[in-house]
Amino acid sequence: MLSKRIQNLSQSATLSLNAKVNELIAKGKDIIAFAAGEPDIDTPDFIKEACIKALKEGKTKYTPSGGILPLRELLSNSINARKRAEYSPSQLTITAGAKMGLFLVFSAILNEGDEVIIPSPYWVTYPEQVKLLGALPVFVDLPEMSGFELIPELILEKITERTKAIVINSPCNPTGAIYSKGSIEKLAEICLSRKIFIISDECYEELYFDGNVPFSPISISKELREITFLVSAFSKSFSMTGWRIGYVASPNSFAKAIENLNAQSISNATSFAQYGALEALKNPLSADFLSSLREIFQKRRDVAFQELSKIGLSVNKPAGAFYILANFRRHLVSLSEEELLNKLLDFGVACVPGSPFGARGLFRLSFCLSEDRIKEGIRRISKAIESISLE
Ligand SMILES: Cc1ncc(COP(=O)(O)O)c(C=O)c1O
C-alpha cells in the first residue's frame, strides 16, 4: 500500500502531456508541440567540452555534498555581482536542478500543517512538494487583467498564524510575468514584519525581454537574505535541463541543514556536470550565448503574441521566460479542458491545459520552437477553434 502522501501526489501535467505528444509523433502524427518546458537550443559546445574534459580527467567520483568549491566560489561571486548580495560560498548548495533545490528548502522549513502561499497561476510542482511534506498550499489568484503582477495586498489577505513561507517565481512559469521592484519591496516588508520566509525561484532569471532585468528580494538587504532562499539553476539559462544542475543560496543559519539534506538525499550533484556549470560561469562566451538566447526568444514571444491576438485569443505579453497563457474560456462552454486538448491534438497542435497551473481555461504555450512552427501551430489552433464554433 502506498503511503498516504504518495497516494495524493499528482502526475506532472507537463511531463505527461509531453509523453503523450511524443507517442503520437512516434506513430507518425504531425504535431506542433507548444508543450516543452525547455529551450530547443543545444547546450553550448564550450560547456560540453569542459564536461568531457572533466570525465577524461577522472572527475567521476563523489564530490563534497554542497558541490565542488570552485563552482560554489564562482557562483557566489556571480550572484553577489549580479544581484548586489553578499553570499559566501558555504551558503550555496549545488543540487540536482532547481526542482531538487526547492524540495530541500521546503523540507528544511516546513512542519505538518504549515501553510505556504503560492501566487496563482503557478508552476505545477510547488503545491505537490508542499503537500508531500504534510503542509498546505494556499493559493492567491493574481488577476489576468493586471498582467498577473504580484499584488502584495492580496497576499496579505491570505496570511494566517500558520503561514510559513511564500513562493515567488519571476520571470514566472506559466504567466511570463516579471514582478515589479515595488511589488517585491512591499512583499519583503510584509514578510519581514510577519517572519515569513520568501522562496524566490529565479530559474528563468536570464530569460527576460526588452531589457527588463528581473529584481530579486535578495538585492534588498542583508535582513532580507536572512529570510529568503534563492533557488535557481543552469537548466533554462544554458539549455542544460538534462544535466540536472541547480542551486540554493540559503540564509546563514540554514545553509548547513540544506547541505546535509542534499548529502542525505542525493550525496552530491553529478560530478562532471558540475564542471560543465563551472565553465558556463567562467567562459566569456556565455555572455554572447545568453544575449542571443534572449534575442531569439524575444522574437518568438512577439510572433506568438501577435498571432494569438490576431485569432482572437486574449493573451498577456510575457516579459520573460518562454511561455504565454492563452485564454480559451469562451471556447470551453460546451467542452472540458481535456476535450479541448484532444480537439487541438486532432488538428495537430499541443498546448498544456491550465487547470494544473491553477488557471482553468488558460492554456499554456511554450515558444521553444521556430517562428515558422509557432505561426503554423497558431494557424492550426485557429482551425480547431473554428471547428468548435461550427459544431
Ligand atoms: C518555475 C520553475 N521552477 C523550477 C523548475 C525546475 O528546474 P530544473 O530543471 O532546474 O529542476 C522549472 C522547470 O520547468 C520551472 O518552470
List the helices and strands and how they pair.
Blueprint: H1 4-7, H2 13-26, E1 32-33, H3 45-56, H4 69-83, E2 92-95, H5 97-109, E3 115-120, H6 125-132, E4 136-141, H7 152-157, E5 163-169, H8 181-194, E6 197-201, H9 222-225, E7 228-233, E8 246-249, H10 252-265, H11 271-282, H12 285-310, E9 314-315, E10 323-327, H13 337-346, E11 349-350, E12 362-366, H14 371-390
Parallel strand pairs: 1-11, 3-4, 3-5, 5-6, 6-7
Antiparallel strand pairs: 2-8, 7-8, 9-10, 10-12
Helix pairs in contact: 3-11, 4-11, 5-6, 5-10, 12-14
Question: What can you see in these coordinates?
Answer:
With 391 residues, the protein is an alpha/beta fold. The protein has 2 domains: 4-42 and 287-390, Aspartate Aminotransferase, domain 1 (Alpha-Beta Complex), CATH 3.90.1150; 61-283, Aspartate Aminotransferase, domain 2 (3-Layer(aba) Sandwich), CATH 3.40.640.10. Helix content is 44%, strand content 14%. The chain is built from 14 helices and 12 strands. It has helices spanning 4-7, 13-26, 45-56, 69-83, 97-109, 125-132, 152-157, 181-194, 222-225, 252-265, 271-282, 285-310, 337-346, 371-390, and strands at 32-33, 92-95, 115-120, 136-141, 163-169, 197-201, 228-233, 246-249, 314-315, 323-327, 349-350, 362-366. The chain has a 7-stranded mixed β-sheet, sandwiched between helices. It has a 3-stranded antiparallel β-sheet with strand order 9-10-12, covered by helices on one side. Strands 1-11 form a two-stranded parallel ribbon. Helix 3 (45-56) crosses helix 11 (271-282), helix 5 (97-109) runs parallel beside helix 6 and helix 5 (97-109) crosses helix 10. It binds pyridoxal-5'-phosphate (PLP). Residues 37, 97-99, 123, 169, 173, 201, 203, 233, 235, 241, 246 line the site of pyridoxal-5'-phosphate (PLP).
